[in-house]
Design goal:
115 residues; alpha+beta; five-stranded antiparallel beta sheet; two-stranded antiparallel ribbon; 7 strands; 16% helix; elongated
């Protein structure tokens, strides 16, 4: 919740497969400085963990998997879709029943409304 679209990795240099990490959905690349992945000190990770445990959890405004949403604009306006997951910062992956089959589509989050 503090760093949307980012993950922290702890790894053994000898066994890390960067291509597998980079090909994970939602991961674009690593934060780098002069071509070298950035390192976050363990003390900062510990502080973040404590901070998140002490801070009351905020309710996410994002839909949850399985929520029924309505498309607000475009060729699919007023159709019902089922939320699957966030696809990037501004988009959602949804399912739409179309011609008797579920089709996976991507919409901007602002074009979807919770029913």
């Amino acid at each position: 919740p503090l760093f949307p679209g980012y993950i922290f990795l702890g790894f053994d240099d000898d066994h890390l497969n960067l291509s597998k990490v980079r090909s994970t959905r939602g991961i674009r690349d690593f934060v780098k400085f002069n071509g070298t992945p950035g390192l976050v000190p363990e003390s900062v990770i510990d502080w973040l963990k404590r901070f998140l445990l002490e801070k009351p959890a905020k309710q996410s405004k994002l839909p949850q998997k399985g929520d029924r949403l309505t498309v607000l604009e475009g060729p699919f306006k007023d159709l019902e879709v089922i939320f699957e997951m966030v696809d990037g910062e501004q988009r959602a992956m949804v399912f739409l029943d179309l011609l008797g089959r579920q089709q996976r589509l991507v919409f901007e989050l602002k074009l979807l409304k919770k029913q």
